[in-house]
Specification:
The complex is a heterodimer of chains A (238) and B (376). With 238 residues, chain A is mainly alpha-helical. Chain A has one domain. Chain A is built from twelve helices and no strands. The two termini of chain A are 30 Å apart. Chain B has three domains: 38 residues, no CATH class; 221 residues, P-loop containing nucleotide triphosphate hydrolases (Rossmann fold); 85 residues, 2-Layer Sandwich (Alpha-Beta Plaits), CATH 3.30.70. In chain B, the strands form three sheets. In chain B, strands 6-7-8-3-9-10 form a six-stranded mixed sheet, with helices on both faces. A four-stranded antiparallel sheet of chain B has the order 2-1-4-5, with helices on one face. The chains are: A mainly alpha (238), B alpha/beta (376). Chains A and B meet through helix 1 and helix 4 of A and helix 4 and helix 5 of B. The structure holds adenosine-5'-diphosphate and magnesium ion. Magnesium ion binds next to helix 3 of chain B.
Chain lengths: 238, 376
Amino acid sequence: MKNILLITAKEFQSYFNSSIAYIFMTVFLVLTHWLFFRGFFLFNQATLRPFFALLPWVFLFFVPAITMRLWAEERKLGTMEVLMTLPLKDYEVVLGKFFAAYGLLILTVVLSFPLVIVVATFGDPDSGQLWGGFLGAILLGGAYLSLGLFVSSLSENQIVAFILGVALSFLLLILGESFVLLAAPGWVAPLLEYLGLHTHFESIGRGVLDSRDVIYYLSVMVFFLFLNVRSVESRKWK
Amino acid sequence: MPTISRNLVVPLGSKVMQGKFTKGASQGTSLQELSELPAFHVLPHPLPRTPMIEVAHLTKCFGPITAVRDLSFRVRAGEVVGILGPNGAGKTTTMRVLTCYLPATSGEVKVGGFDAVEHSLEVRRRIGYLPENAPLYGDMTVRDYLRFMARVRRLAARLIERRIQEMTAVCGLQAVLGRVIGELSKGYRQRVGLAQALIHEPQILILDEPTSGLDPNQIAEIRQLIKTLGRERTVILCTHILPEVSMTCDRILILSNGGLVAQGTTEELSRQAAGDAVYHLTLRPPQGLPAEGDGRHAALGEVRAKLEAMPGIRRPECLETIDGGRARFRVSADAARDLGEELFRLAVENGWTLSELRREAVSLEEVFSRLTTREK
Ligand SMILES: Nc1ncnc2c1ncn2[C@@H]1O[C@H](COP(=O)(O)OP(=O)(O)O)[C@@H](O)[C@H]1O
Ligand SMILES: [Mg+2]
């Protein structure tokens, strides 16, 4: 456990050392707030639902941006050779990096909390939907993060890691969309609907916390983190 | 007299080897031939009392490429061993297996009695590793980086700052402790890499090309440092620079083409080398050498065959052909016998006009380049 936290602390510090963290948070908050307030004054409804509806699409580009360097850079610089010859287990390093990226993402989501106050002064938002929205955002973000982190371990080029991350996240996101379901043969449709990120995000966002949705997101994370451990090990297979 | 030039870097894989040793098409010295030579036969080194590192029949393949082939050696506790070999010899690959970064394809590696595969964490705890090119995190300060490494190495919290101070003093990092690593010069980066490898006082220090890319002053400093460090721990130093190992190491292992071709102390290797003498002959066959074509080739082959047939002569090779139908040859012979007269007589019998006949002692550089010349 201590090993995981050491890696997390180091990676988290790195985000701030390299100013990625500041740029990330600023751009994310400015963009989401602007998009939200544009609609907010137009429709004059005291709800954060439009804000949460944006997140799957905004995360699509922002999350791979914070995971792309985590492994690609280690491989490019050769620091991976030092890191992986330290007395650490592979999964400790993978989890350490994951938690660091997750920390930054959660911090950013929390920083958009003042929106709640704004909305609350204009009306009376449904608190179940609010909490559901934030929880859904954090779970969805975690799923994207685990995917992005895994993809980063596949290439030593950060740009490749970014683009692959966006593309695969997009695929996973739209898997459960109705037009995909219509096109798919009948028997796979329910499976796709279950696997799609968006379906679960919407159901949590309605304020209904179903353990199946939470389990779904946790399974996605475990799955990609597992793949990540395997891909870090894969240097040993050649 | 075998001499080791202190500042000469043997230009491996460049002119010396190709020019001298591989010009004649069939002249490349193969490992097969080498292992048959008594002078350079791999001598069993006196068995170490407590082997700190034991490598037994290590083979490492990358797909079709065999980077390391059936390599076996031992390193005693406290020994400073140099692994010398041209680029591509398999040094880095061997170090990666030792440090548990890569598993061996076959063979066994034990460090401090622990198997590198089964007890990888125990092995990694005992080793401080500076990989080739000293990879470091560019966005951290030197102090943060050393602190991170110290923590991962599980140093007690109260010891960490003191240890960083010590490492700063040992590696000469006072001036840059607060600087960001990405801004440091190559020399400082190499020292940060060393400090990182030493922070937990490892029993074993593994350094891969620690002086590459440094200027002569920095090289001298780092070598001095390695010498000092070697007093109290086991050190493995990989390099393609001969003077580096002959200056800093107790024992040298010479690696070529993924295999061990010789090992011993500098003196032992020099003595083995001294067992060999080399003669240079410049001669003109009776009709001179034909200008080109098959005739020329045949003439050279004939001379070579005559030389080869002479008892006591090994590996005659044509180094170059000179204007006037002459050719320069080089032959190896046992140093104990003076073959000068016999070579002269051979020349007279065959009607060769000799314009040079010179005997030369073999230097350690030569042993090295001969041992590591690749088959073409
Ligand atoms: N990861 C790898 N994949 C494929 N081939 C490799 C890899 N690492 C090393 N090699 C090959 O193995 C041989 C030995 O390389 P290396 O151990 O780096 O030699 P050295 O460090 O002595 O210069 C070279 O031919 C190199 O191309
Ligand atoms: Mg190397």
